[in-house]
Each structure stands twice: as structure tokens, then as C-alpha cells.
């Protein structure tokens, strides 16, 4: 089975860089996406906001980026232990 996400979005919010109990850097973000997609043969304006998280060197790299900057995020979806909403776990980024 695959669980891969590629999303072009801007960084809408970023919490301060923190460290896990094991000492791993972690960063929680809110991403916002806007685009036009085709659904059932008709154009549709799409807006989405999503929580995302990054760990290690990726967290440190994202912590240095500007709010509002546009990126293509690569990662996977997972539910947090106590959460019901999927979170994007960022594994790679490319600036647009």
C-alpha cells in the first residue's frame, strides 16, 4: 500500500521549533493550498488548510522559512495518537 502526498501550499503558520523527548527537532505547521481542479469534467476552485509536521533536519530547515512562502511538500498522512484528523508528515520540500 502507498501513502504518499504531494501538495503545493504556502506556510500559513509555524509554531516555534521544539524538541522531542529524544532530542529530535520538531516543527508543527499549518499549510494553505489554493488551486483550480477539474472534477467530473468541470472546473472547481479548491482551498484547503492542513496541519503538517516535520522532524530532524527537515524541521530545522522549515523553521528558517518565511510565513507565506510557497513550497511543494512531499510526505505521508498519519493520525496523531489522540487525534482524529490526518496530519501531513513532511519528508521533502521544493521551493516554488
Automatic annotation (TrEMBL):
Q: Which domain of life is it from?
A: Bacteria
The answer to whether UniProt assigns keyword Aminoacyl-tRNA synthetase to this entry is no
Question: A Pfam family in this protein?
Answer: SSB_1
Q: Which UniProt keywords apply?
A: DNA replication, DNA-binding, Primosome
Keyword DNA-binding appears in the UniProt entry: yes
Q: Which family does it belong to?
A: Belongs to the PriB family.
> According to its UniProt entry, what is the function of this protein?
Involved in the restart of stalled replication forks, which reloads the replicative helicase on sites other than the origin of replication; the PriA-PriB pathway is the major replication restart pathway. During primosome assembly it facilitates complex formation between PriA and DnaT on DNA; stabilizes PriA on DNA. Stimulates the DNA unwinding activity of PriA helicase.
Q: Kindly provide the name given to this protein in its UniProt entry.
A: Replication restart protein PriB
- In its UniProt entry, the species of origin is given as Acidovorax facilis
Amino acid at each position: 500500500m502507498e501513502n504518499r502526498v504531494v501538495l503545493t501550499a504556502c506556510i500559513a503558520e509555524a509554531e516555534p521549533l521544539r524538541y522531542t523527548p529524544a532530542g529530535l527537532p520538531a516543527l508543527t505547521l499549518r499549510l494553505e493550498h489554493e488551486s483550480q481542479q477539474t472534477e467530473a469534467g468541470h472546473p472547481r476552485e479548491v482551498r484547503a488548510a492542513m496541519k503538517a509536521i516535520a522532524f530532524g533536519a527537515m524541521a530545522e530547515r522549515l523553521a528558517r522559512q518565511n510565513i507565506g512562502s510557497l513550497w511543494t511538500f512531499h510526505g505521508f498522512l498519519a493520525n496523531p495518537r489522540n487525534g482524529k484528523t490526518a496530519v501531513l508528515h513532511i519528508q521533502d520540500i521544493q521551493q516554488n
